Amino acid sequence: MGKVEGGMKCVKYLLFIFNFIFWMMGSLVLAVGLWLRLEQDTVALLGSDGAPENFFIGVYILIVAGGLVMLVGFFGCCGAVRESQCLLGSFFACLLIIFGAEVAAGVFGFLNKEKIIQDIQTFYSESAKDANGNNTLIVSSYHRVLNCCGTASTRSAQCTNTAPDTKDCESAIEEFFNSKLFIIGYVGIGIAGVMIIGMIFSMVLCCAIRNSREVI
Questions:
Q1: Which of 126, 116, 63, 71 is closest to 95 using CA atoms?
Q2: Of 115, 80, 99, which is closest to residue 204 (Cα–Cα)?
Q3: 158 CB-side CA count, 13 A
Q4: Cα 168 to Cα 38, 54, 144, 157, distances in angstroms
């Protein structure tokens, strides 16, 4: 088997180091996704029946992409060490797929931010209007987690016993989920940017291995 020589050997070890870092970043993405899905406050607000589920779509994309990044990072390390065209080619193809998923998560977080927040605000407002047993628990959860009360139009009538600086729940919902959606967006697009470097390294090394075999 022909071996990669000279500057390409440097690319080989750079790709190995990159994939180890890539594996660690996959662990981070997976951890962030699980945190966003299982975080106590988020579950309290969106864990009830009938709650909007569109917020969790971007979260699920992050979780799946994070798991795949860890797996692909491992195979990328193996491909770099063994100088395997097959593994490196598979690595490139998987990176391309995950790249699309991460960009989708980032774009989803940014472009659907207003709709997601609006759906959650509507869910809160409808729950507050229909004050049965379950809805009362839902409204109480929003008040407790977000430290808010009522909406901008109903706060003065419904929240007479709250502190003057208490926010209305529509503003509190927007502030809370804005921060979560920005995390999804920035993590998704940030990891996608790193993947471009990995795809370049893998293609350079793969071409170098192929050329060295042709010479031999």
A1: 71
A2: 80
A3: 19
A4: 25, 23, 12, 12
In sequence order, which ranges of 112-168 are alpha helices (DSSP H)? Answer: 113-129, 133-146, 155-158
Backbone angles phi, psi at 160, to 5 degrees: -75, -20
| 101-153 tens-digit pLDDT | 777 767 776 778 888 889 998 888 888 887 666 778 888 888 888 888 878 77
Tokens in use for 166? 């208490």
Q: What is the largest CA-CA distance in the chain?
A: 85
Q: Which residue has the tokens 């940014």?
A: 110
CB 33, CB 59: distance < 8 Å = yes
- Work out the number of other CB atoms within 10 angstroms of the CB of residue 148: 23
Single pTM value for the model: 0.73
Q: Measured between alpha carbons, how far is 130 from 138 in angstroms, rounded to an integer?
A: 11
Distance CA 207, CA 91 (A): 14
